[in-house]
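Re: the 225-residue chain
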Amino acid sequence: MKTVLVVDDDIHISKMLDEALGRDGYIVLHAYSGTEALMVLEKTRPDIVLLDLMLPGTSGEEVLSHISGIPVIVLSAKADARSKVELLTGGAQDYVTKPFDLKELSARISLRIKESSLSPDSPISYDLITLDPLARAVSVSGAPVKLTRTEYAILKLLIKRPKQVFTKTQILDKISADTPDCTDSSLKIHISNLRKKLRDASGKDYIEAIWGIGFKLEADDKNKK
């Protein structure tokens, strides 16, 4: 059974999640402050964390900065885009605005746990794109798409965490081992070329530029050729 840690000081929400997730077959742990959440995380390793931001004691943002290797879904009443972007670049895998739909949240939990449990060599799919790490190959709707080494490294990073915004610095840092020749000045060109190849193969824009922040992978059904 998978374990979910709910970090929220709202007793009503915690009880509701306890009942709903329990019915879905999860073991549910609770922390009602940021300080308590850090204590729980020192003793156990849940499969996923549902994290509120407005917590007594240590803030949700501070708790997030201490979590590594565990998927985090932020639950917050903050709905502005900047807050979401900051949290997604800060390590959260998803962001759900309160009030939320329990069925949608359950689906997101299942997806994030599945993503985190995949073998590093397992093929990764997003919408029409499939990336095969063993073959170092990419296909769109089953048709192969030729990418350069740098383009492949960028897509591999983005496809592992779709919809998460990565800053230019984060991208350069995470792909540096595979693409030492990629620089701050050339990164935008590589991303532009990757975006065009995916768009030509699918008719969709998959890479979205978040002005002044970075890039994320998100399917756009509009043909922007």
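Residues 184-202 form the longest helix (19 residues).
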